[in-house]
TrEMBL record:
EC primary class: isomerase
Name under which the protein is recorded: Isopentenyl-diphosphate delta-isomerase
Organism: Fischerella thermalis JSC-11
Binding sites annotated in the UniProt record for FMN: S72, S73, M74, T75, S103, N131, K198, T228, G278, L279, R280, A299, M300
Compartment annotation: Cytoplasm
Binding residue positions for Mg(2+): E167
Record lineage: Bacteria, Bacillati, Cyanobacteriota, Cyanophyceae, Nostocales
Membrane among keywords: no
Gene Ontology cellular-component annotations: cytoplasm
Pfam family, one: FMN_dh
One Gene Ontology molecular-function label: FMN binding
Keywords assigned: Cytoplasm, Flavoprotein, FMN, Isomerase, Isoprene biosynthesis, Magnesium, Metal-binding, NADP
Length: 349
């Protein structure tokens, strides 16, 4: 007779599975892309710039960043995840990137693993985002739990991630999303740090962004389709044929990242906007910024590097900065703001 495992142990197992599957299995979108390939920068053969004068610094939610980059939310809750978060935090501190952590639900259920998320000691000056699933507000979570995860991280903001498709496929997923917008609104009005709404790879539409902003959300992370498919990740963890079939059927479901950026910017021109979802290099980042995002988030490239070595994460940070800088130089722009106002990105399809 099998002995039932506790919810916290099940969550730990799931987190370990997620890291392993993302690193070892092919769980990327196959047909749906991030949409950025439909855009091209107009090359400037005479930039009239000194390369040394290019400045990638920016601000987001009132905090200074060395470059418009976010190490997107990934993991926590296991020893390997703790090591990954430490490496990522040290690099975020070095380059002054923003950083988010994975869902901290496990840290609420099992406080002994909270230290795998607590990276402030490695990143004292970094813009840090705590993270919980919005759906947990329908499962006995409230202000106290949100304050707890913010305190664990000493975070500057709280991400509420929205993942209805993943919950549909995940074994024993939490699928009661009824009334969540009102609960998000109440949380936004009482929590002392800004709330960021984030998808997990299927995108946020302009209509939903408007509703979230009206509810009090201070920033949007589009997390569009085109990168890691969490439907495919969960199908790899399936406990029965139905879950496996669902994951495969909806493997390419979602709104491409580029489409999310442009549609949200059309209706919300000033909301702080994070572009993520299938961004793999600095050219993707620059395109996302030129389309209207304030900063851009990458997850898979940082996960692969952090799982490899500390040096690999530093190398990735340097490469991304060099790639973004090259875009600015070869479009004749000295700053991110100039790039965004230059009109140098062309729609080619």
């Amino acid at each position: 007779m099998n002995t039932p495992i506790s919810p916290s142990v099940a969550t730990q197992i799931r987190k370990a599975d997620h890291i392993r599957i993302c690193l070892e299995e092919d769980v990327q979108f196959q047909q749906t892309t991030n949409g950025l390939e439909d855009y091209r920068f107009s090359h400037c053969c005479l930039p009239e710039l000194d390369h040394n004068d290019i400045d990638l610094s920016t601000t987001f939610l009132g905090k200074q960043l060395g470059a418009p980059l976010l190490i997107s939310s990934m993991t926590g809750g296991t020893p390997e995840a703790g090591m990954i978060n430490r490496r990522l935090a040290e690099v975020a501190q070095h380059y002054k990137f923003a950083m988010g952590v994975g869902s901290q639900r496990i840290a609420v259920e099992k406080p002994s693993v909270a230290d795998t998320f607590a990276v402030r000691k490695y990143a004292p000056d970094v813009l840090l985002f705590a993270n919980l699933g919005a759906v947990q507000l329908n499962y006995d979570y409230g202000l106290d739990e949100c304050l707890r995860v913010v305190d664990i991280l000493e975070a500057d903001a709280l991400i509420l991630h929205l993942n209805p498709l993943q919950e549909c496929i995940q074994p024993r997923g939490d699928k009661n999303f009824r009334g969540l917008l009102d609960k998000i609104s109440k949380l936004c009005s009482t929590l002392q740090v800004p709330v960021i709404a984030k998808e997990v790879g299927n995108g946020i539409s302009a209509t939903m962004a408007q509703k979230l902003i009206a509810a009090g959300v201070k920033a949007i992370d589009v997390a569009g389709a085109g990168g890691t498919s969490w439907a495919k990740v969960e199908s790899e963890r399936a406990e029965n044929p139905l879950q496996r079939r669902l994951g495969r059927t909806f493997a390419d479901w979602g709104l491409p990242t580029a489409e999310c950026i442009t549609s949200i910017r059309a209706v919300a021109p000033t909301v702080p906007l994070i572009a993520s979802g299938g961004l793999r290099h600095g050219l993707d980042v620059a395109k996302a910024l030129a389309l209207g995002a304030n900063i851009a988030g990458l997850a898979m490239p940082f996960l692969q590097a952090a799982a490899s070595s500390e040096a690999a994460v530093y190398d990735l940070g340097e490469i991304l900065i060099a790639e973004i800088t090259t875009v600015l130089f070869c479009t004749g722009n000295a700053t991110i703001k100039q790039l965004q106002c230059s009109g140098s990105l062309e729609h080619i399809k």
